[in-house]
Design a protein that fits this description.
Number of helices: 22
CATH class of the largest domain: Alpha Beta
Distance between the termini: 23 Å
Shape: flat
CATH superfamily of the largest domain: P-loop containing nucleotide triphosphate hydrolases
Number of domains: 3
Strand order of the largest sheet: 3-2-4-1-5-6-7-8
Order of helices and strands: HHHHHEHEHEHEHEHEHEEHHHHHHHHHHH
CATH architecture of the largest domain: 3-Layer(aba) Sandwich
Strand content: 5-15%
Number of strands: 8
Structural class: alpha/beta
CATH topology of the largest domain: Rossmann fold
Length: 455
């Protein structure tokens, strides 16, 4: 979502880095370009004006002008102001301190991803905080809306309120609250109905539900692709309902990113979650400082580590480490497991966005045809091998490669590239085995893994 904005800001800062010192004129020129970049990214004009004013005031100060690296000082100032606009230091998180069941009310326009976001948040809270969650659909207007939440509940393992025909939203709310209390649920998620536009009837219904359920959280789910209009929607919902937070969906699309920068400033409500894809586990907590770093191509190592902690099987990792230390070879079975972990962590695209400085080589990656399908194709190649071939890559002669290419829908050239990648990984793992368990970090620091990514 922030790629274009990050690229524009990166080009502006690269011009500044070429200067030994900065004059007020240099800063003014840079600020004009930053202003244009923000407006092109759909950031609202009032927010842009305030943002530029604060940066200019700090950037023309004596501390920056006389700094050893004035361009870096300006980048730091921009980073800090971006962070402030987005909400400050920390993720706001859900307020779950009320007596259970804590009610979380999901609101938004039809088609914003409200129902899917409800299931995503319920699943994440259930997994990370060990909370017992119940979901209830109050949307009796959109065809199959209640069935959709029920299906998502089955997929995620989160309980849903049984569907009763002809119940009105208020009756459903009462039943959901009663079930949540009687059966000891920690959280109750109310997935309310949306409309194609905001109207009095919808707002009156939401106000009645709010009065009855006394929610601790009222989360607006907004589609980031709606651009400037998302800010107007958020403002109206906030005025009518008193929002406590915002969930931005479809940030993996080609949205310009301005909505995220403007919504907090326009409403005063923190952005709490980002929907990064369609799958139930594709949801991120919103951390202003991390997003500011991503926009400025500083990466997000903390999120990368968190993804790794969630998706890497510790038992499997320990088995692999012991195997390597005993001198056992790294084979295609091991590589298949590593590729599956990459998919669980958001694929190559998801990981690359979190690595510092990756913006500078994204175009080169595109030229090399590195895409999200690469990992899947490599898995198909491995799964088309026999058990012996996976254990012993030396068996892969010309006829075997042609058979595997036919079975996996790939080419012999792709198989050769994967074999080359395997050999490089075997070499790295052999060195690790000789150097002991502490070698992984030292090799990473020396760039020892730069040639073994699935590219």
């Amino acid at each position: 979502m922030f790629d274009n904005l990050g690229k524009s800001l990166g080009n502006i800062f690269n011009k500044l880095k070429g200067k030994g010192f900065l004059s007020e004129e240099d800063v003014s020129l840079a600020m004009r370009e930053v202003r244009i970049a923000l407006l092109e990214a759909d950031v609202s004009l009032p927010v842009v004006k305030d943002f530029i004013s604060k940066i200019r005031e700090k950037a023309v100060g004596e501390e920056v002008i006389k700094s050893v690296s004035p361009a870096q000082m300006v980048i730091k100032i921009v980073h800090d102001e971006l962070k402030n606009i987005l909400g400050g230091e920390e993720n706001a998180g859900l307020n779950l301190r009320a007596n259970p069941p804590v009610v979380v009310m999901m609101v938004g326009l039809q088609g914003s991803g409200k129902t899917t976001s409800t299931a995503k948040i319920a699943l994440q809270i259930s997994k990370r905080q060990r909370k017992k969650a119940l979901m209830a659909s109050l949307d009796i207007y959109r065809p199959a809306a209640q069935q959709q939440l029920e299906t998502l509940g089955v997929q995620s393992g989160i309980a849903t309120l049984p569907i009763t025909q002809n119940d009105k939203p208020i009756e459903i709310t009462k039943k959901a609250m009663e079930k949540a209390k009687l059966e000891g649920y920690d959280i109750l998620f109310l997935d309310t109905a949306g409309r194609l536009h905001i109207d009095q009837e919808m707002m009156a219904e939401l106000a009645e539900i709010k009065k009855l359920s006394a929610p601790a959280e009222i989360l607006l789910v907004a589609d980031s692709l709606t651009g400037q209009d998302a800010i107007n929607i958020a403002t109206q919902f906030n005025e009518k309902m008193g929002l406590t937070g915002i969930v931005l969906t479809r940030i993996d699309g080609d949205a310009r990113g301005g909505a995220a920068l403007s919504m907090k400033a326009a409403t005063g409500c923190p952005i709490k979650y980002l929907g990064t894809g369609e799958k139930l586990d594709e949801l991120e907590e919103f951390h202003p400082d991390r997003i500011a770093s991503r926009i400025l191509d500083k990466g997000d190592v903390i999120s990368l580590v968190e993804k790794a902690a969630e998706n890497i099987d510790k038992e499997e990792a320990e088995k692999l480490a012991k195997k390597i230390q005993r001198g056992g070879g790294f084979d295609f079975n091991d590589l298949a497991k590593q590729l599956e972990t990459i998919k669980k962590m958001g694929g190559m695209g998801g990981l690359m966005n979190l690595i510092p400085g990756i913006g500078k080589i994204k175009n080169k990656m595109k030229e090399a045809n590195v895409d999200e399908k690469m990992v899947g194709r490599q898995q198909a190649i491995i799964y088309s091998m026999t058990k012996r071939e996976r254990r012993d890559p030396k068996l892969l002669n010309g006829s075997r490669k042609r058979r595997i290419a036919s079975g996996s829908g790939t080419s012999v050239q792709e198989i050769n590239r994967l074999i080359k990648q395997m050999r490089q990984m075997q070499s790295v793992m052999k060195k690790m085995g000789k150097m002991g368990g502490k070698s992984l970090m030292s090799m990473a620091m020396r760039g020892g893994f730069k040639d073994i990514l699935p590219m």
